[in-house]
Amino acid sequence: MPFSCLPASLYPEISNGERTLADWFRLAAEIGLDGADISVAHLDSLESPYLNGLRRQAQDAGVVIAGMVTYTDFTHPDPAVRSQHRQELRNYIDAAAQLGVSFLRVTAGQNHPGVKRQDGVSWAAEGLTAWVEEAAAAGVTLTYENHAIGYVWTYFDFSQTASVFLEICDRTADSGLQLLFDTANLLAVDDDPLTVLDAVLPRVAAIHVSDIRQKGSFEPVLIGSGVTPLNAIFERFRKAGFHGWISVEEASKTGEEGFRQAIPKAKELWQN
C-alpha cells in the first residue's frame, strides 16, 4: 500500500524559505515514504522549467509527488472570485499532470458570512465538477475533501459539517468527482466519520490520515494520540479492498520528530 504525507507542520518553514521542497522530499524518503505531497501555496511558478525541476528533485530523493492540495473557494459570494478559482484549478490540473501527481485535492470553499446553504452547495458543486473530465484526461484524479480549514483561508470550510458535505457529494455523484477522506475533520464539528465514510466509501480515491485531541474542536495531534477511530476507519477501507494513496497529514507541530513518529504509527495501524 503506498504511503505519502502532507507536511502541514512544515508549512511555515517552507513558506519563509527555511526549508525547501527539495528538503521535504529528502525527509520524506528518509522516513520511508513512497510519496511526498505538496501545497500549491509553495509553488514558485507554474511554468514548465520550474515544474520539471521540482519533479526531478523528488525523483532524485527517491519519492514521487503523490498528491497536491489546492484551496479552491467556490463558495465565495463574488462570482468573479469564483470564476478566478475555477480558472486557477484548470491551471493546477496542468501543473499536477506535469509533476506526475496522482490526486489533486479540491475544496468546496470557505464558509463566508452571509452565504446561504442552497447557494453555497450549488456554487460548490458547479466548481468542483467543472474540470473532472479534463483532469482525468491528463491522468490526474480530482478528489474533494471533507475539509476543515485551508492554510491560506480566513474561515472554516463551507462543507465542514457532515450534512453539507454529503449534500455536495450527492449533487456531484454522477460527475466522476472522487473523494479524499480525512479521518479526523468531521470529529471537530462533532460529526461521526464512520457514518459518513459508510455513505461515501466507494468514491474515496485517497485518504488523509489525521488525528485531533478531542471532539468538538480542531486541534491536530500526533497520529494515534487523539480521539480519531483510526482502527475502525482503516478496517472499513481494508474490507472494501482500498488500494489508493494513504497520505498522513502531519500537523502536530512537533518538528521532524513528529514525522518520524507519525509515519510508522500510521503504517502500524493500517496493518492491524
Give an overview of the whole structure:
The protein has 272 residues and is of the alpha/beta class. Helix 7 links the parallel strand 5 (141-145) and strand 6 (178-182). The longest helix is centred in the first third of the chain and has 21 residues, at 79-99. The model has no long low-confidence stretch (mean pLDDT 98). The chain has an 8-stranded parallel beta sheet. Helix 2 (21-30) runs parallel beside helix 3 (48-61). Helices cover 42% and strands 12% of the residues.
Mean pLDDT: 98
Structural class of the helices, strands and pairings? alpha/beta
Helix tally? 10
Mass-distribution shape: globular
The major pleated sheet works out as: 8 strands, parallel
Measured between the Cα atoms of the first and last residue, the distance is 14 Å
Order of helices and strands: EHHEHEHEHHEHEHEHEH
Strand content: 5-15%
Strands of the biggest beta sheet: in what spatial order? Answer: 1-8-7-6-5-4-3-2
Number of strands: 8
- Point out poorly predicted stretches: none
Helix content: 40-55%
Backbone CA Rg: 17 Å
